[in-house]
Automatic annotation (TrEMBL), chain A:
Residues annotated as domain Rab-GAP TBC: 226-447
Matching PANTHER family: TBC1 DOMAIN FAMILY MEMBER 19
One Pfam family matching this protein: RabGAP-TBC
Protein name (Swiss-Prot/TrEMBL): TBC1 domain family member 19 isoform X2
PROSITE patterns, per the entry: TBC_RABGAP
UniProtKB/TrEMBL annotation, chain B:
Cross-referenced PANTHER family: NICOLIN 1, NICOLIN-1
Taxonomy of the source species: Eukaryota, Metazoa, Chordata, Craniata, Vertebrata
The protein, known as: Nicolin-1 isoform X1
Gene: NICN1
Top-level taxon: Eukaryota
One GO cellular component, as annotated: nucleoplasm
Length: 501, 215
């Protein structure tokens, strides 16, 4: 009990300190000064009257939203003896498996190759692709784990060999209770055959009310059942606590001027990535310019470095020549600490459908990245981290489709090899855009990426009959090559709630 | 509340196993760690901190100085089966830092002589398990309130102003009240220090490739 109170007061102190530096604090102070002019505020009960004023004028809601977004992002309070690395990643062998050194060396090798002034893109190879990353994950081993030759209770038949905690299907059913069969969903109950009076109209009305209230927590709860297309942009901005203030616009303009004035090596990587992925995609090629604008600014944004406090990875560091090892002359390269890998631009592409203003698009993408997407390409033991997602996918498949799993394993087509690329990109570029946005609604609503693993397993379950007949990895990949006709919500519902276990 | 580490001597972990250690297959699931305090006398235990390494359950037995009419000291269990890993087969909680406090113990810890930590790990999946970085703390002395600046609490005796004061000098009372106000302002600003960034990012050409060294 004492420990919980101490943890709570530590959390409160941390959040207060963080919010004191934000614009919201100075705005609240100014509002409090202004309100002193009003006749309702009396000197004797000053504190209560000002609190009442904040409640009525809506400022309390804004403060609630800010606190809620801090709580969502803030990691658990740490033990005083624990070093900062422990907060990023508690398991020592995962900390040791980070990639930055390899990436740095690759990048440095390419610097030596650069002979010409203009970026000759043929000299550039993407730093790494999801396939390479999967190889690293497969080779993760806990030195204290019994990985004996004889099969025992916990032999991992899949590719991932670390015993992380993943949810069972009963726990998933509880966690995703709003997706159950007797709750209305957008993506299912707004189909043309279903009369809109049953669910859709009421849901839209509720959404408008939530937006009018401007309450982050309520919006997050609401969006678990899907978001109407017209309200989606504003709802996401509300949940991520992104508002388009003049200061944010100014910040974006400053980043843009940095892009124009200074050249960075990662710009070439970004150009190459966009040309290879988004420009070839039927849905996203029109947004090519937006993608450049967002990604080039993103790589120069040092505020992204803040998320490395809870990211298990560390930003690559380099030193000014001649000052090796001196911390004063250390710089992070690229400035935001994130090296884009092959397919990185696909994180931004679906957002272009929602936001047309570059500065708002940029802020939404940055917030989504530091909350969710960074977990998809860093090695950590977090339940939403890519290692846990892979293990969850394999466990679900083994438990509920054992015959299919065994068959695929026998023909040398480990299921994770096919589904990994879907999960790393959060299905962007594989699903149709409206289905993808419905899926990302749920990611925001549940504040977790586990739904990606569940969807991957559901896709395998859906195509199980065809997969049982294939005899090679290439054939299995062909069966699962085209996901653009799939409807996401019925698949999830059937897999979670309608499969006989 | 301040705490002071107590120097202790931690004996190596002893595995409890039925039968001969060499011939029996399978790993022991119970380890015992004895902790003595040879330099410190009987003390009041405030807190125990350690880093877990794949231990699932922890029990602690304590031997204290008995009441004056009792001749021998007994072992009492002060913590029973405290769960460190919710699922012994999974990694959750396996490498966490943990603190145990006086109020979580089943008995008073007023005059501790010796402690015995009993570690259990029922899962056969792990090769080793132990506790690392064990530390024991007792109550520290009450910290005195921060020393008030000497020259503020001992004002200098009133001196006769020198002849220099004939020239136009500001009124000392007004100056002192203004200085006090400024001091209060700086104290307030210091107390509300934030971690907010200014928000600007100047490059100065230091991202020029030629300047960065290859590490």
């Amino acid at each position: 009990m004492l420990q919980e109170e101490e943890d709570l007061s530590l959390t409160i102190a941390h959040i207060v300190q963080k919010l004191k530096g934000s614009r919201l604090y100075s705005q609240l102070e100014r509002q409090a000064w202004v309100s002193l002019q009003k006749p309702e505020i009396k000197l004797e009960s000053l504190k209560e009257d000002i609190k009442e004023f904040f409640k009525i004028s809506g400022w309390e809601k804004k403060l609630q939203n800010a606190v809620y977004s801090e709580l969502t992002v803030f990691p658990l309070p740490r033990h005083p003896a624990a070093p900062p690395e422990h907060l990023k990643e508690p398991l020592v062998y995962m900390r040791k498996a980070q990639r930055p050194v390899v990436e740095q060396k690759e990048l440095l090798n390419k610097w030596n190759e650069m002979g010409t002034d203009e970026p000759d893109l043929s000299l550039f190879r993407p730093v790494y692709a999801p396939k390479d990353f999967l190889e690293v994950l497969i080779n993760l081993r806990n030195p204290n784990y019994e990985n004996g030759d004889h099969l025992n209770l916990k032999t991992h038949l899949g590719l991932i060999q670390v015993p992380l905690k993943v949810k069972y299907i009963s726990e998933l059913k509880e966690f995703f209770i709003e997706l159950s069969l007797n709750t209305g969903q957008l993506g299912i109950d707004d189909a043309t055959q279903v009369p809109p009076e049953l669910f859709e109209n009421e849901h839209v009305r509720l959404g408008q009310k939530v937006l009018a209230e401007q309450d982050s927590a309520a919006a997050q709860q609401y969006i678990r059942q899907g978001s109407p297309t017209a309200l989606r942009a504003e709802l996401w901005a509300l949940i991520l606590n992104v508002s388009n203030q003049p200061e944010d616009l100014l910040y974006y303009e400053q980043l843009k001027s940095n892009v124009i004035q200074h050249d960075l090596l990662v710009d070439s990587l970004i150009y190459k990535d966009v040309k290879l992925t988004a420009s070839n995609d039927d849905y996203y090629f029109v947004f090519e310019d937006y993608l450049y604008q967002v990604l080039l600014c993103f790589s120069r944004d040092t505020s992204v470095l803040g998320h490395f406090a809870y990211n298990s990875a560390s930003p690559p560091k380099s030193y000014i020549r001649g000052k090796l090892g001196m911390e004063d002359y250390a710089v992070f390269y690229p400035p935001n600490g994130v090296i884009p890998f092959h397919g990185f631009s696909m994180y931004v592409a679906p957002l272009c459908f929602l936001y047309h203003e570059p500065s708002k698009l940029y802020q939404i993408f940055r917030e989504m990245y530091v909350r969710f997407f960074f977990r998809l390409h860093s090695i950590s033991s977090h339940p939403s981290g890519i290692v846990s997602l892979c293990l969850l996918f394999e466990t679900l498949l083994q438990t509920h489709l054992p015959q299919l799993f065994y068959h695929l394993r026998e023909i040398g087509a480990q299921p994770l090899r096919i589904s990994f690329k879907w999960m790393v990109r959060a299905f962007s570029g594989y699903l149709a855009t409206d289905q993808l946005l419905l899926l990302w609604d749920r990611i925001l609503g549940y504040n977790s990426l586990e739904i990606l693993a569940v969807l991957a397993a559901a896709v395998f379950a859906f195509r199980a009959v065809n997969l049982m007949e294939v005899t090679s990895l290439a054939a299995a990949e062909a069966v699962l090559a085209d996901l653009s006709t799939l409807k996401v919500m019925p698949l999830l519902q059937i897999f979670l709630f309608a499969t006989i276990t | 509340m301040s705490r002071v580490p107590v120097p202790c001597h931690i004996k190596g972990a002893v595995a409890l196993q039925v039968g001969d250690v060499r011939t029996v297959q399978g790993r022991p699931g119970v380890l015992v760690i004895d902790v003595t305090f040879p330099t410190a006398g009987p003390f009041e235990l405030q807190e125990i901190t350690f880093k877990n390494y794949y231990t699932a359950f922890l029990s602690i037995r304590v031997r204290q100085v008995g009441s004056p009419n009792q001749s021998s000291t007994k072992w009492i269990t002060c913590l029973r089966d405290y769960c460190l890993m919710p699922n012994p087969h999974n990694e959750e909680g396996a490498q966490d830092y943990v603190s145990l406090y006086k109020h979580q113990m089943l008995c008073d810890m007023d005059k501790v002589l010796e402690l015995r930590l009993i570690l259990r790990q029922p899962s056969p999946l792990w090769l080793n398990f132990t506790l690392e970085e064990l530390q024991f703390f007792q109550h520290g002395p009450q910290s005195s309130s921060s020393a008030f600046t000497k020259w503020l609490s001992h004002p200098a005796p009133y001196e006769q102003p020198a002849l220099l004061l004939q020239q136009a000098l500001p009124d000392p009372d007004k100056v002192s009240s203004e200085v006090q106000q400024m001091w209060m302002l700086t104290e307030m600003i210091r107390a509300s220090r934030t971690t907010a960034r200014i928000g600007r990012f100047d490059v100065d050409g230091c991202y020029d490739l030629n300047l960065l060294s290859y590490t």
